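Quick review question:
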């Protein structure tokens, strides 16, 4: 395939195949690589493109998040992630992702108030929790309960109405921390703590997780700031597996609560949102620094099936900009909590040191990702391992909802329907059971 550029015009790529040629438009975004628009390919050339895992395919156009994996750049609506994590509240980031711009003071106050007013759950939803075993994984509870919200808000199914979409977006983002915290309280056998309108998003989540009905709960500002950062760092990440799942489910016109539940299911796996939980399990398995060389040898041995969890990323191939902020936050939180010698942190730092200088990892461009340090922070804050992915889902709901809205509001939006390279049996005739 060759590409040509005529001044003043969009460039074309020319594909030659079996004596035929097709002119394929090359589309340019604001920043980032151009994409070849192959939509006419089947009609003109009778072929599809092959890209298992969609790693090299732009599945949509989007104005929300930009990533340059080689340079370690992550922008939300154009703003670098480090600036947002350092200066913004999570609520400002929600507004930004949903609406495209940062709010002014008046808009922010109105928006925060509306968000706060939607944090309560319908009292009937309490009954859902009783249906789960006490040892249920909170991701199972989250996935089921968020999907069940579609039964409480059937109007949301009429997604053609803008006010329905806006209301569903607010409800989802506002209610998910309440469901998440209650999933934890349920597994502990503790009374549910209701949301408080005087607290911000991060504080409210900490309060619903850790407050007890029997005593007042004091918010630690350092932990609230860390929680605010963790939420911002996980808010959106372009067309990853769970976001693409939400878009795919949403493209059928399904109820938005059901679509977000699908995203939660996709996030659950250890290759995606389950990684920070897997990092802690891995550190516990390694146990002490002396065992690191043996562990690294196992990771390099392809037959062992062992991976260095919290390392590597489908898109970031030099560094994950979120990992740097996480590492700094990790030190802040451990300092505040007076944890001077955390064996897990020591182990993580040593492991990182060894891995980033090891040829195996250098050659494959494997660096710590956002999850390498987030698990240590969350553990220090008292958040149990089983809640790590849940917290990720709480934060990512903002991205999922923003991407879902963007897709539905796009003119000419179509159902997602990838094609395949069929490698099964050619057509054959049915043979009756007694003849086989
Ligand atoms: N440990 C050891 N080897 C690894 C790791 C790892 N964590 N990650 C990739 N590799 C190796 C692969 O075995 C492969 O080696 P090969 O070329 O010799 O066959 C090479 O590096 C390239 O790996 P791919 O699997 O092609 O990389 P891909 O981009 O498909 O995978 C993924 C990315 C899934 C994140 C992978 O790096 C991984 O499993 N990491 C551990 C899990 C993890 O931390 N996930 C969190 C991702 S961040 C997030 O979801 C928020």
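Suggested answer, residue by residue:
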């Amino acid at each position: 395939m060759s590409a040509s550029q005529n001044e003043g015009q969009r460039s074309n790529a020319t594909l030659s195949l079996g004596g035929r040629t097709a002119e394929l438009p090359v589309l340019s975004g604001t920043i980032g690589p151009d994409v070849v628009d192959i939509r006419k390919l089947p009609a003109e050339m009778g072929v599809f493109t092959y890209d298992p895992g969609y790693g090299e395919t732009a599945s949509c156009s989007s104005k929300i998040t930009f990533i340059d994996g080689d340079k370690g750049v992550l922008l939300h609506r154009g703003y670098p992630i480090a600036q947002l994590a350092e200066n913004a509240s999570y609520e400002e980031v929600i507004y930004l992702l949903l609406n495209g711009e940062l709010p002014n003071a008046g808009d922010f106050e109105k928006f925060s108030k509306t968000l706060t007013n939607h944090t309560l759950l319908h009292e009937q939803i309490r009954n859902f929790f009783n249906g789960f075993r006490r040892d249920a994984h909170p991701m199972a509870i989250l996935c089921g309960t968020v999907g069940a919200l579609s039964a409480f808000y059937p109007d949301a199914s009429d997604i053609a109405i803008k006010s329905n979409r806006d209301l569903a977006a607010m409800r989802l983002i506002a209610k998910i921390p309440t469901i998440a915290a209650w999933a934890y309280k349920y597994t502990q056998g503790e009374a549910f703590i209701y949301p408080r309108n005087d607290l911000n998003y991060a504080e409210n989540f900490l309060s619903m997780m850790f407050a007890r009905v029997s005593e007042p709960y004091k918010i630690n500002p350092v932990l609230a700031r860390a929680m605010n950062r963790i939420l911002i760092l996980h808010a959106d990440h372009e067309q990853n597996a769970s976001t693409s799942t939400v878009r795919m489910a949403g493209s059928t016109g399904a109820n938005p609560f059901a679509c977000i539940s699908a995203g939660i299911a996709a996030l659950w796996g250890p290759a995606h949102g389950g990684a920070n939980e897997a990092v802690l399990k891995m550190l516990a398995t390694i146990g002490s620094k002396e065992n690191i060389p043996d562990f690294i040898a196992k990771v390099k041995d392809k037959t062992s099936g062992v991976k260095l969890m919290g390392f590597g990323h489908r898109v970031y191939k030099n560094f994950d900009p979120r990992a740097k902020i996480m590492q700094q936050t990790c030190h802040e939180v451990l300092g505040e909590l007076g944890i001077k010698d955390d064996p897990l942190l020591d182990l993580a730092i040593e492991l990182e040191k060894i891995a980033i200088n090891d040829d195996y990892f250098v050659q494959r461009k494997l660096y710590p990702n956002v999850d390498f340090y987030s698990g240590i922070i969350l553990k220090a804050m008292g958040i149990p391992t089983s809640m790590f992915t849940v917290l990720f889902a709480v934060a990512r709901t903002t991205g999922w909802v923003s991407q879902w809205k963007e897709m539905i509001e796009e003119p000419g939006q179509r159902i997602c329907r990838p094609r395949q390279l069929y490698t099964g049996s050619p057509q054959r005739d049915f043979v009756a059971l007694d003849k086989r």
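Why it works: DSSP finds 18 helices and seven strands in the chain. The beta strands are 2-4, 12-17, 20-27, 35-36, 65-68, 73-76, 79-80.
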